[in-house]
TrEMBL record:
Presence of the UniProt keyword Nuclease in the record: yes
UniProt-recorded name of the protein: Uma2 family endonuclease
A Pfam cross-reference name: Uma2
Keywords: Endonuclease, Hydrolase, Nuclease
Domain Putative restriction endonuclease: 17-180
Molecular function via GO: endonuclease activity
PANTHER family with a match to the protein in the record: SLL1072 PROTEIN, SLR1083 PROTEIN
């Protein structure tokens, strides 16, 4: 008699991902069953993310950097640059934060991450019903605010998209914050991309 493993293929890749030893200076994420590794980001990227974090009031919101997020019904464990959760909803511990607790995720675009941030993660975060997805893009000097997630799996998307150039304020209504982008830097000598 032959034994058949009828578990979905994703079970195996999740186990491999969780046991993976990632070299220092490399970020690893599981995105729809694919392990994606990227180098550490540029200082410009990190300063923009830190500036956003500083503008979100800590008295009301937990602002977590590099927190793994568990996307319900997905073989995905993305690691956003910033995760915002209401302080009273934050669990006491755990590596994976359930997406249904998250109010906003923030991704800073780097030279190699535009496709992942604008296409793959947009769909993943929408599938996880994360209400607000903010893309900070120092290549195109713009913020892309995505709200109203809808749909399932790879067909999931955000129904509302607002593009704001660096220098103009971005209203983050769900957080009660008007984001000042006037100090956001840009990446020099990087070829523009075609997103969103």
């Amino acid at each position: 008699m032959t034994a058949v493993d009828d578990r979905p293929m994703t079970t195996g890749i999740v186990k491999i991902f969780e046991d993976l030893e990632v070299p220092e200076g490399v970020k690893a994420e599981l995105l729809r069953g694919v392990i994606v590794m990227t180098a550490s980001p540029d200082i410009v990227h990190n300063m923009i993310v830190a500036d956003v974090q500083d503008q979100i009031p800590r008295s009301r919101w937990s602002r977590l950097q590099t927190q793994d997020v568990d996307i319900l019904n997905e073989a995905s464990e993305p690691v956003p640059d910033l995760v915002v959760v209401a302080r009273d909803l934050l669990p006491d511990s755990g590596r994976l934060l359930p997406s249904q607790l998250v109010t906003m995720v923030v991704e800073g675009v780097s030279k190699s991450s535009a496709y992942q941030d604008y296409v793959v993660k947009r769909s993943i975060y929408a599938a996880g019903r994360i209400p607000v997805y903010l893309i900070l893009d120092p290549i195109m000097a713009q913020c892309v605010l995505l709200t109203r997630p809808e749909g399932e799996g790879e067909d999931a998307d955000y129904l509302t998209q607002q593009i704001t150039k660096f220098g103009d304020p971005v209203s983050l209504e769900m957080l009660g914050v008007e984001l000042d982008t006037s100090d956001f830097g840009t990446l020099p000598d990087v070829r523009p991309h075609r997103y969103p």
